[in-house]
Amino acid sequence: MEDKEGLDPAGTEFKSDSSSSWTLAGPDSVSDSINYFFDRESSILSEFGWNILQLDHADEIERFGELDRTDASRGLAGNFSGSQSQSCGAAGGSCSGAASNPVGSAEVPTSNPSVSSSSSEDPPEKSTGFGGKPPEIPSKVRKKGQKRIRQPRFAFMTKSEVDHLEDGYRWRKYGQKAVKNSPFPRSYYRCTNSKCTVKKRVERSSEDPTIVITTYEGQHCHHSVGFPRGGLISHEAAFAGQFTPGVSQFYNSQGVQLHKGISPSTTQSQQLPIEVRESRALPEPTSQLPKDEGLLGDIVPPGMRKT
DNA sequence: CGGCTTTGACCGGCGC
DNA sequence: GCGCCGGTCAAAGCCG
Length: 307
Prior knowledge:
alpha+beta; N-terminal domain of TfIIb; 6 helices; 16% strand; disordered N terminus; DNA-binding
């Protein structure tokens, strides 16, 4: 079940798959924004009792990268072209613009293990452009030979005693697996909205059990439910919903930190390209995610709007 | 009774 | 080819 209400967190560290060939905002354009967002987010988060983990935890991040090593090594999310079958299934487009992170192919060479996300290698046959492919194919129906399609993923670490933080969306747990090299199981959740295929994985860091690593895959094509079960909507929702963390540490597909601060998406637009590899054009804003809604967009509960 | 969690089985990708 | 592992399915059970 979702945990008791109450976030009792202490820290949150965002990580995104925002590695990409989509250029990250340059330092100068970001510096001020960084401070701005750090201030802003820090204060907001602290309102909720969340503290942003600082770079001191880079080692954790590295560990995190290891957690997804397998995925990365398999070149899963590497290419969102064509794979980016948005989360909204048949909605056919209602979500398509609400793209996700500029996940994609970071070309930064490194020996580091990768963060969940992309490698730059992908079979060309997969990259047939987005929009033309059906939504994620259920594994059981998946055609033979067709690789699993990955949605862009966005992960962050939260210092919390509860595994599953309220994030404004309703999730149904559909699986739990023991994780290799970790005493803690990994839980798999799926958004309960039938049209939404967003998934999230929740696991604890084996090194620091107080750290919960949450990985979102896909993007919600609907609004959050607000205050689920009397729970408090958290910032997790805000970030998870749009995949545009305001305060983040960015890593490329190899787990190499690209920069710290506001996400590229935030610097340029709320909306991110679905296909960051072949097109850097920003998608049209969708009705669901107003372009200029600000960092937290419209999934921010009313109470948090004030600043 | 509906929605959700639990949990074992199953499947596919990958490395050896 | 085989085994490992991550991810998903689905039946069974629980709970409000």
